[in-house]
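Re-running histidine kinase to confirm reproducibility after the cluster update. Everything else is unchanged from the original entry.
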Amino acid sequence: MSGIAAPRPDHPSLLPALLAADAPEDRIRRSGRDWAIDVLCFVLAAGSGVFMLYVTSHPPHSMPHPPRPPDVILGSAACLLLWVRRRWPVPLALALAVTGLFSVTSIGAAAILVFTVAVHRPFRTVALVAVAHVGSSAVYTAIYPDPTQSYWVSMTWTVVLIGAVVAWGMFVRARRQLVLSLRDRAVRAESEQQLRVEQARHQERARIAREMHDVLAHRISLLSVHAGALEFRPDAPPVEIAQAAGVIRASAHQALQDLREVIGVLRDDAGDGAPERPQPSLTDLPALIDESRRAGMAVRWDNQVDDDSIVPANIGRSAYRTVQEGLTNARKHAPGAAVRVMVGGSAGSGLTVEVRNSLVKTAPEIPGAGAGLIGLTERAMLAGGRLEHGRTLQGDFRVHAWLPWPEAT
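Result of re-run:
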């Protein structure tokens, strides 16, 4: 007892913590397994009490013992208390340490309660409960000594048995904590995997949405140009009116088709085997420029790349979107102005894309959100390149992008 430090006055919450009931999860309704374990513990405690009663009462092992009626009553009560040991393990274990001074038949129930405390409580609490039982046994052995062995031999066996019970209980506790830790790690790993999958889906949807912004802005600007031509030239020849109406119809149909695709992608989760929508590349630039020319734009196309097909797909796609956004902005903010599109570069030196137009306004400007150039800048940075845009000293508006084009290995 002298080797255990007494609780210091600056820890007034120690005793309530020791006597507190288990956490809410310890008070869950008993399962079938819990009932089986409780019945087994009761049978073992009762059997141990009967055995000790027999050993201390019959020769040649008879020895001094407490009065039988109180001993049996206390031992029976101790066995019954095992049914609520999960809720109050520490108070019951301390109570049985006191009961052990007057009852030899409560030894089995006391050992089970010490084991329960070792399973459900931290080491400091377990050590205090174990010391209480060792002290109780020391007093009992001094009052009712065993005539077949010395006092210290009896105490040594007591300490060994209590230590074995405590060690077994703490082993069970450590194993349970390990299992719970592994289960928690598995749950967290699964949750993190689901989160990564969900983030990948959101990133893919955001990427598709940015792509569709570029496409829809381009087609709607074509609609606006042709509708404006019909509005400002109501006396145009029927052939030109029919041609403009055909372009408007085709552009509106394609815009609706693109919008239907992006809404379907953003609404539904695509399966792993779902085909991805074909993405444009540098080889699609002539078709884009021809479409703009048919819409009435004066576009000068300067292609300085020897072979468009050898440009990496991601670089070609970024170049295509840069030209598409530049042509869309020229139609919106400088309708009727001549536009120069230049693409040049080679593997190792990078790919340069430039769209330049004058700032002369000849018609009302189509409103815009200004997010296209921001998206292009982000796209270029993600690809490892850079994008600049703004007015030049010559009075033009210039979009200039440089994209890395690694050498083939």
